[in-house]
Each structure stands twice: as structure tokens, then as C-alpha cells.
Amino acid sequence: MARVGSNLFRGLRAHSVCGAIALACAAVPAGARGANPFDCSGIAPASGAELRAELVADGLENPVDVAAPPGDTARLFVVEQRGRIRIIDLATDALRPQAFLDITARVNYGGEKGLLGLAFHPRYAENGLFFVNYTRTGGPTGLETAIARFQVSSDPEVADPTATVLLTYAQPFANHNGGQVAFGPLDGYLYISTGDGGSGGDPNNNGQNPLSYLGKLLRIDVDSGDPYAVPATNPFAGSAGVLGEIWALGLRNPWRFTFDPENGDIYIADVGQGLWEEVDYQPGTSAGGENYEWRTREGAHSYSAGTSYGPGTRTAPLIEYPHPDQDPSTTFEGVSVTGGVLYRGCSMTDLHGAYFYADYGRHWVRTFRVVDGKVTDHRDRTAELNLGIAPDLLDDITAFGTDGRGEVYICDFSRKLFRVVPANTAPVIRRVVRGDANDDGEHGISDALFTLRHLFRGDPPRVDCADALDSNDDGSLDVSDGVYIVLGLFAGGPPPPPPYPDCGEDPTADSLDCAASTCE
Which residues 6+ apart lie within 8 Å of 238 measured at CB? Predict the structure, then answer.
């Protein structure tokens, strides 16, 4: 294929092209993301969606959360409820003996209390900041939750134990502490899940109380204010009689929520009272303010009909399932939902968009997808996962998490950590779709914008398929690739060459690669 030359600019002045590109670039939101939020270079994904579990680490003490700093594909960090964060070296799956952070002396631990959540700052590689959620002795009731900021020390394997506490709120009882912290992938704000304060039946109606932090999903800006700021876009910011930090309310004990790292959708697993378990959903386009109705309702059913609602939009669960004996016609039952993760990882592209979750008491794992706000492709994954670890079995599942490539891990509360891997490890055949830079299946102005943003703004920092961005097939990525697309669309220039026949390899000898776009 010919390289870009001056002959391609006939009939269209160069500054007009550049002006159109610049104008269109300005219209694209700064938070726009590429097709894959993870660095999948060098990973050949397996075909199919059948899964297995494999043991990663044994000897953990009550693991309740697992996470990795953005872009860190070498390490995994596991939260132990007693008050420690441990590091696993992913090259060898070795659990390092020295804790990354040990705050056991500060943590009030036992039952549902302890060190419960970990979130790395989106710019952790630059600032070394991370945030934890734990219970401690103190406050007006003698027990409180603390949201604290820490920083890594000069040794990247050890954290500085000095804490800056951002937020505390009293816990009236020992249970229902929620406990997760996570950064929104699109807005960069810190989200915090809080339980209703415990006991049974939310006796203080905290879930609907607009002046209580309990029974909520909170959202704060940790990069502004002292020690934080309330985002002006929070649904109740500046409203009288409502805490500005509230993003959503009406939750009982949200034991794990997650974001779709691609589009910002939120999935919240809310543990039920005695009859129903539920998973709640908020699309990434939401402005917040959903009210998931506890304690007036448990799942989609009346619980305390006389309880007044707080503010917000009443929102039914995405799915619910019964406790034993509630619905004899179904085998889909459980006693305590454990929220999971939305898969966008590198090794199982056929599984993209699947949400993992589990039941702690019934020891099953399921997945489903959401299409147009509705649940589809709901599958029980327990048997296939257990095939990988037999005679061991998954049980007491407390949490899911992902590593720096988006791969899924499962915490077993007793002492183990498992990884989800494809059952079929044969790589799929690749094809090159030149010019389809954003992998949306067609050529358009958005492909030129994607290419230019990648080149000049580092957004995204890496791409799934470098060959696809090389729209003029000259073996390099530069501004000529974006211009080539625009000329083909608006000035009668040639289109990018079509996919190579029969899904073969890229026929052009160059240093670029393609790690995306599978043959159908």
C-alpha cells in the first residue's frame, strides 16, 4: 500500500483537514476510553467461554479483597481481614512473607469487622497513594468505620504506615459494615459502600435516612479539598437536609460493588435480610441518586411498608434470588450474595461483559451479561470452575478481584486465593482490520480521532491492535494514519486495505502487532 504523499491532498487543503480533525478532537470527552482498558500486549486469548479455577496461593488469613495498582501486571495485593495487605508475585504466584501494610493494632477485628477494602489511586504509579476501609474502636458508639489514605514508602514492596483519615462514621452495631472502596473508571472519584449499621431489619432506618452515611454508596473527590471534597455533580450536593457525599441510598449490606472498567456501569451486590438476595445496577450514564429501597423493600418485595422513603429515584434490583424454601420451583437459591467483577480482561475475550458473582453460603459462582438494561446469558459456573481444583472445591467466597490485565481472582475466606482461567487455552486466529482503530466494526471519523488521541494524548496509553491503527499500512503509527482515514472519508482518497483473506496473518512485515479482533 502506498504511503501518504502530497498527491492525496488534491482537492482538499491540508489546513482544512487538520482544522476538521482538531475541531472533532475537541468535541470528544477527555474521559473517553479505548475499547480495552487493560494492556493486553503479548497475550494470546483463548477461544470459548468455558472456565476453570486454579490455586494461586494458600496460607492467607481470611482474605476479603484483592486488587492491583493500575497497569501493574507483576503483583497482586490481597487484603486480610485482621488488618494486613499481602503481595503475591504473579511471575511465580509466590506469597511474600512481609506484609505490604500491617495495621492490625488499629483494626477492630472479628465477625464482619476488620480491614475490609483497598483501592489504589488511578495515578498510583506517580503518587503511590492508596485507600482502605476498616473498622476501629472509637466514636460515640465505641465502633466506627474509617476511610484512610496511605502512601507507599521508598521501598515499593512496603507501605508507609502513616495514615491520613479522610472520613469516619459511627457503627451502632458490629455487623453490616459494607466496606469496599473503589475509584470510578470514568470520573476518578472514590466510591465507598456502607452497610445500614447492623442488627436486623435496620431498626434506625439508616438506609433511607438522608443524614446518615449508613446504607449508602458514597462518592468523594480525594484530589481536592482537605481532606476531600464533595463533587459538585453528586446528586444531592448543596441540597439541604441531605449529605452531599451520598451517591445512592437504600442499601442493607452492599458486600462488594464493581464498575465495568469500560463504560462505568456499577453492579452492587446487597445482602438480604432473610428472604431475598439482590444485585443492583446503575448504568454508567447515570447522574446518581438511585434509591434501592431498603428497608421499605427487600429485593422486589415489601419488607416494612410503613417505612418512609428518603430522597432519590426508587430503583428495583437488577436480579434477585430467594433463600431456601421461598420458591420451591427453583434451584437458584442462596443465603448471602458476594458481589464480583465485570470481566474485560485479556485472556478470555469471548467472556467480555460477563459479571461474576457468588453466594457465600451456597458456594456457587454465576455469570450474566446486561444488554439494554436486562439480564441475559445467566450461567452457573460452579461445576466447571471446580473441575480445575478437584478434589478441592470453591467455598466461603468472600470477594472477587482483578489483576493488572483484568483477569479474575476469587477469595476463599479460609485461606486460599484462586484464579479464573480459560478451559480452552488454544489461541484464536487473528485478523487485521486496518483503520478500525477503536474496534467498533466500521471506518469513521472516530477512528482518526482515536489514533490521534493515542499518539498525542496517550489516551489510551496502549492499544489492543497496533496494526489496526496503521491505516495506511506503512509499518508505523503517526499522524498520517489519522489523515489517511479523513481523506478516505471526505476527499475521495483510498480506504484502508481490507482484512487479509481467510483470517490469515498480517502480510506486511513490520514491528507492529495485532492482539485484538478475532475471526468470527
Answer: 232, 244
Q: How many CB atoms are located within 10 Å of the residue 287 CB?
A: 11
Amino acid at 73: T
Pair type for strands 313-314 and 290-291? parallel
Residues 449, 450, 455, 460: is their CA dihedral positive or negative?
Answer: positive
The pTM (predicted TM-score) of the whole model is 0.79
Task: Give CA 196 to chain center in angstroms.
Answer: 24
Other C-beta atoms lying within 10 Å of the C-beta of residue 98: 11
- Complete DSSP assignment for 13-56: -HHHHHHHHHHHHHHS-TT---S-SS--TT--PBSS--EEEEEE
* Residue 82 Cα distances to 61, 62, 115, 197, angstroms: 8, 8, 6, 20
DSSP letter for each residue of 360-375: TTTTEEEEEEEETTEE
* Contact indicator for 357, 279 with CB cutoff of 8 Å: yes
φ, ψ at 130 (rounded to 5°): -145, 165
CA separation for the pair 62, 381 (Å, rounded): 23
Q: How many CA atoms lie within 13 A of 28 on its CB side?
A: 22
CA distance linking residue 517 with residue 498, whole number of Å: 14
Nine-digit cell string for 280: 443492583
CB 267 within 8 A of CB 258: yes
pLDDT digits (tens, 9 = 90+) for 354-391: 999 999 999 999 999 999 999 999 999 999 999 999 99
The pLDDT tens digits for 212-261 are 999 999 999 999 999 999 999 999 999 999 999 999 999 999 999 999 99
- Say how many CA atoms lie within 13 Å of 162 toward its Cβ: 5
